[in-house]
């Protein structure tokens, strides 16, 4: 089965990311396909490159990166992202900021790509705040 | 890795239900849901919305958002009509427990829990169910 996941919660204040990662791994282990993870609302903070995970906690950035290596698209809602300071090089230039902050493996996309993902997938699973 | 732009027209358009359960003005969740619903409608999905829990306060008329320096939820809601989103529902149990009459609200059709079950069962995807 082909899944699209959505992560709505920020890292470290919500378990939304951990749950999505756990679900993705379990689904893949059973032979399912995860096409895309869509980061929306505070969930876009998963794509912030400057964050440092405490040593005692799960390194979510590493976990996302491993999922990206499996071909899963890490799609970050651009509207939610730029207002929280998660910007790629293009948005950095557009808004004249001093650095870009989107982590490797993530990509900024329009909200339409969430809808398209849902249209395309067999199942849409949301991990709330 | 570049994200593939998915083709919208290679499958039947889906039925999407957006759930609004957060109150207006103390949270931005509701307006974000309305914006997502508009995008979905613009992308030819069959969109409906249901207001539940404290989300039902979004449907009160005569909201004065200016006093809290925010956009009026009611105005954004009215703009949904421009996107041909006209299936708006409200949870009757949520109204009863808050002492609100369906007749006092804007434009939504009241549904009891059985009717909501039916509505959910008809959907291809439900967005914001646990917000």
Total number of distinct structural domains of chain A: 1
Looking at this structure, what is the CATH superfamily of chain B?
A: DsrEFH-like
Total of domains of chain B: 1
The first-to-last residue Cα distance of chain A is 25 Å
Oligomeric category: heterodimer
Structural class of chain B: alpha/beta
CATH class designation of chain A: Alpha Beta
| Mean of pLDDT of chain A | 95
Quote the CATH topology of chain B: Hypothetical Protein Ychn, Chain: A
| Total beta strands of chain A | 5
Number of strands of chain B: 5
CATH superfamily placement of chain A: DsrEFH-like
Structure description:
The complex is a heterodimer of chains A (129) and B (131). Chain A is an alpha/beta fold. Chain A has a single domain, classed as DsrEFH-like (Hypothetical Protein Ychn, Chain: A), CATH 3.40.1260. Chain A has 5 helices and 5 strands; from the N terminus they run βαβαβααβαβ. In chain A, α1 runs parallel beside α2. Chain A is globular, with a radius of gyration of 14 Å. By secondary structure, chain B is α/β, with parallel strands linked by helices. Chain B has one domain: 3-Layer(aba) Sandwich (Hypothetical Protein Ychn, Chain: A), CATH 3.40.1260. Chain B is globular, with a radius of gyration of 15 Å. The two termini of chain B are 30 Å apart. At the A-B interface, β3 and α5 of A face α1 of B.
């Amino acid at each position: 089965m082909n899944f699209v996941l959505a992560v709505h919660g920020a890292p470290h204040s919500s378990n939304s990311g951990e749950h999505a990662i756990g679900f993705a791994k379990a689904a893949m282990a059973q032979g399912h396909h995860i096409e895309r993870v869509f980061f929306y609302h505070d969930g876009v903070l998963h794509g912030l490159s400057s964050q440092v995970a405490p040593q005692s906690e799960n390194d979510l950035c590493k976990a996302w990166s491993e999922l990206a290596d499996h071909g899963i698209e890490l799609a970050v809602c651009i509207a939610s992202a730029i207002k929280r300071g998660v910007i790629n090089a293009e948005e950095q230039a557009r808004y004249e900021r001093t650095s870009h902050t989107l982590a490797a493996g993530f990509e900024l996309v329009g909200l339409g790509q969430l809808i398209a993902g849902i249209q395309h997938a067999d199942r849409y699973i949301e991990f709330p705040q | 890795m570049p994200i593939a732009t998915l083709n919208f027209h290679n499958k039947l358009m889906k039925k999407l239900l957006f759930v609004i359960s957060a109150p207006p003005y103390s949270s931005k969740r509701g307006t974000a849901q309305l914006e997502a619903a508009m995008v979905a409608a613009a992308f030819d999905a069959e969109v409906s919305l249901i207001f539940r829990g404290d989300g039902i306060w979004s449907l009160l008329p005569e909201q004065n958002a200016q006093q809290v320096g925010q956009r009026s939820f009611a105005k954004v809601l009215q703009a949904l009509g421009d996107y041909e989103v006209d299936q708006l529902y409200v949870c009757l149990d949520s109204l009863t427990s808050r002492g609100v009459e369906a007749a006092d609200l804007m434009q939504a059709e009241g549904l009891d829990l059985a009717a909501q079950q039916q509505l959910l069962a008809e959907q291809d995807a439900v967005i914001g169910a646990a917000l």
